[in-house]
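Researcher: Here's a chain I'd like modeled. Treat it as a single chain, no partners, no ligands.
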Amino acid sequence: MNRQNYIFTSESVSEGHPDKVCDRISDAVLDAFLTEDAESRVACETFATTERVVIGGEVRGPGSVMKRVEDIARECVRDIGYEQKGFHWANLDVQTYLHAQSAHIAQGVDASGNKDEGAGDQGIMFGYATDETEALMPAPIQYAHAILKRLAEARKSGAEPSLRPDAKSQLSVRYENGKPVEVTSIVLSTQHESESQTSDEIRGIVEPYIREVLPQGWITDKTEWWVNPTGTFVIGGPDGDAGLTGRKIIVDTYGGAAPHGGGAFSGKDPTKVDRSAAYAARYLAKNVVAAGLAQKCLIQLSYAIGVSKPLSIYVDTYGTGEAGEEAIEKAIRATMDLSPRGIRQHLAMNKPVYQRTAAYGHFGRAPDADGGFSWEKTDLVDALKAEA
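Model: Modeled as a single isolated chain. Structure tokens:
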């Protein structure tokens, strides 16, 4: 039997965190290629440190985009808000080392003759959903994201001019009878303007926004607050700590409440199952829970490079299922084509919608009218009910 009473912790990082700066640039490069050619192949990695951004990887797409990569990187950094000594969008040394995709990888992935398009690599991908929040996400990661997103909005609007882009949050949430009821501790570290600002002063700035975001009653007199616990945090971003694409995979998914297959998302086009199949698994798990077939659902998919169909589909409902796991697995096979092309077509993924995923989570977001976060739709509910 699953534990019903416990404390669980998840963390998030802001769009100005060094690794998230790199995720943003990699996904912005991907979006630029998809804007010009929806069938572009992109695997873009970014490294950032003091006054320097290095972009590398493999691409197959319009050469015109290659000429704009430096400008794309600078615009990302400018929009995030870095204009500090040590990391300023206008003064960066941007180096680009993108090159052609390997022909040996392409031969396994591309469709040809009677061969369907295959997966871009081997691997396992997980999707998860739970009914503990409206977004069908685990509460600790959902609200850790929400805190940082709200603080970024206040910073960018000018309401809180002394805040700076780099920040991290962490929530410990107490569960009672399997449901989140209370925050036992809040950790918030945010870059700020002046060395004269104390931790107490920073708490005075951020606390109203944190209370605004968290459900009423979750903060109590027992809640522990740790705001800028090290003291001064003026030197931040890639000037304080080097960044790299793909290092925040647990932040990107479920905050540790569910497994992660190991592959990062950002900078990868949707032919790569590291990204598209993880999105599909979330889509399926969310629809299973939305359909009332389970209160919690974990889905694992596995692939082999060059092979179109998944090697396995595994479902775990943690004992909360209204239908059996085998019945749900059968329903999944009957309702969605989980080949790489099938996933892209079902979720309309060949669109420039990935830059917006780079911070505050790839999951638990509302679907956008232009196709962004299509994997958060619950339009498969009726079909799954009929098959299960």
